[in-house]
Amino acid sequence: MPMFNNNEILDTIHMIDQQHLDVRTITMGISLLDCCDPDPKAACRKIYDKIARSAQDLVKTGQDIEAEFGIPIVNKRVSVTPMALVAGASDTEDYLPFAQAMDDAARAVGVNFIGGFSALVQKGMTPADRRLIAAIPEALAATELVCSSVNVGSTRAGINMDAVALMGQTVKKAAELTADRGGFGCAKLVIFCNAVEDNPFMAGAFHGVGEGDRVINVGVSGPGVVYHALQAVKGEGFDVVAETVKKTAFRVTRMGQLVAQEASRRLGVPFGIVDLSLAPTPAVGDSVARILEEMGLETCGTHGTTAALALLNDAVKKGGVMASSSVGGLSGAFIPVSEDEGMIAAARSGTLCLDKLEAMTCVCSVGLDMIAVPGHTPAETIAAIIADEAAIGMVNHKTTAVRIIPAPGKDVGDTVEFGGLLGAAPVMPVHGESSADFIARGGRIPAPLQSLKN
Amino acid sequence: MRAIVTVIGKDTVGIIASVCALLSQHRVNVLDISQTILQEYFTMIMLVDVRESDLPFADLAALLKGEGEAAGLDIRMQREDIFNAMHRI
């Protein structure tokens, strides 16, 4: 009988108890392509019914797995087909009811977010895409659980600058409509370049059209575990650091794979991918910034931060990829400012600024995430920030995203409190010089050359 | 189905006896057991078989946790797969 090594058992228990090891999310992707209907009311009813029917056992199954394996599963979520594709079939100008149908269904099944009030406009916009984008601010204000995303660029298509300009205004409006909650609407809105179709993480999750009818995707986490492992190799060379991160990521991902397979089996829904992401939380000891500091940086954001993050991001992927039968989603280190205790501290101290964060997004998963800027920031400046980030994604063949909150009535030095996993965002300065004429041009930034790389 | 029961807490008389009594009450077979004192803390690790248990896994785990809390102990029961996955290739 193979008996376990007691240290291994206690290691796992310490990881869960003291190092915040958890499965961050089990996300069920659901295709709504079969819910199209010329009558918008009928379409909304079909949408509600399909989500409610497909995901009725999701939360209970997650809780059962949690209880049996003794591993916390923090979130249970649903992602759906980009709503512009479904709503486009309906004879209506008003897309708000579609968001409400999603919200109602999410409540009925007990998940804590539903993603997919989305449009993919990297090359051009259909009338449905325009109507959906127009409905985003109100949808985010009027619903609680609906998350929205818009893909404005890709390596193959370039950047749709008309959409970028529109999203600058959309972000501003979403903030204004939720001004009483610090601009909370913007925390549920992601603007992507090279969006992936199987991302389980919110707010950017949607169920891609290349996916099956239903799928289970799992996002793992574990910054605290990596941080703790690195504390044991203080002063060692970077080869040792990389190896340590890889080994840790392997273990964390194996756990995620086990949970994903178990959830898939119990729900009778195919397993999609494990997303190997280091997703921080505002809890002390669960921070990506503190990992970078553990590598020898006094404060996250100082010189060397980009190199440290590049190593971390790569080692997480290398360690995780062998531990799962199928890796996908965003996979890498997340750097959401408001959701990371160390990032919050670094931003407050002034060491971590927007420009450095932008540089960091060149080497890590996703992008400018959960960043609060002054409420008076012009829509064109926000659009220009989106364009910069999209350009990084487009040129580097990676997913980049912007989730930015122009916090109404707040200025540099203030803090916006969102609470829970969304944390607290110190308002960060933006450049005051105008980008308005740049954004006003519109059109498309062409797709980059795929050769002559330098 | 096999599970790992871990009991961690301040050492007192009769911890092993009371945990084993509870397990046998619910027809859980103890396959292996090891215990040490780590920094004054009593640490017991048991490999158990819960196939014949009269309670669903989650209820049994909750019962153990509750009994542990009453006695000032941290008792948890987890399916062995989690340790297999994390520490064995």
Topology:
The complex is a heterodimer of chains A (454) and B (89).
Chain A: H1 6-18, E1 23-30, H2 40-54, H3 58-69, E2 73-80, H4 83-87, H5 96-109, E3 113-120, H6 127-142, E4 146-154, E5 158-160, H7 161-177, E6 189-193, E7 214-220, H8 223-231, H9 238-267, E8 271-278, H10 288-294, H11 305-321, E9 332-333, H12 341-349, H13 354-361, E10 368-374, H14 379-396, E11 400-407, E12 415-417, E13 424-426, H15 436-440, E14 444-445
Parallel strand pairs in A: 1-2, 2-3, 3-4, 4-6, 7-8, 8-9, 10-11
Antiparallel strand pairs in A: 1-7, 4-5, 5-14, 6-11, 12-13
Chain B: E1 2-10, H1 15-25, E2 29-38, E3 41-49, H2 57-70, E4 73-79, H3 81-87
Antiparallel strand pairs in B: 1-3, 1-4, 2-3
In short:
Chain A is α/β, with parallel strands linked by helices. In chain A, 43% of the residues lie in helices and 18% in strands. Chain A contains 15 helices and 14 strands.
Describe this structure as you would to a colleague:
The complex is a heterodimer of chains A (454) and B (89). In chain A, strands 1, 2, 3, 4, 5, 6, 7, 8, 9, 10, 11 and 14 form a 12-stranded mixed β-sheet that branches. Chain A has a two-stranded antiparallel sheet with strand order 12-13. In chain A, helix 7 packs across helix 14 (379-396) and helix 9 (238-267) packs across helix 11. The model of chain A has no long low-confidence stretch (mean pLDDT 94). In chain A, helix 6 links the parallel strand 3 and strand 4. Chain A folds into 2 domains: 22-193, Anaerobic Ribonucleotide-triphosphate Reductase Large Chain (Alpha-Beta Barrel), CATH 3.20.70; 224-445, Anaerobic Ribonucleotide-triphosphate Reductase Large Chain, CATH 3.20.70.20. Chain A starts with 5 loop residues before the first helix and ends in a 9-residue tail after the last strand. Chain A is globular, with a radius of gyration of 21 Å. Chain A has helices spanning 6-18, 40-54, 58-69, 83-87, 96-109, 127-142, 161-177, 223-231, 238-267, 288-294, 305-321, 341-349, 354-361, 379-396, 436-440; strands spanning 23-30, 73-80, 113-120, 146-154, 158-160, 189-193, 214-220, 271-278, 332-333, 368-374, 400-407, 415-417, 424-426, 444-445. Chain A has 454 residues and is α/β, with parallel strands linked by helices. Chain B is an alpha+beta fold and 89 residues long. Chain B is built from 3 helices and 4 strands, in the order βαββαβα. Chain B has helices at residues 15-25, 57-70, 81-87; strands at residues 2-10, 29-38, 41-49, 73-79. In chain B, strands 2-3-1-4 form a 4-stranded antiparallel β-sheet, sandwiched between helices. In chain B, a hairpin with a 2-residue loop joins strand 2 and strand 3 (41-49). Chain B is globular. Chain B starts with a strand and ends with a helix. The chains are: A alpha/beta (454), B alpha+beta (89). The interface between A and B is medium-sized, with 22 and 25 residues.
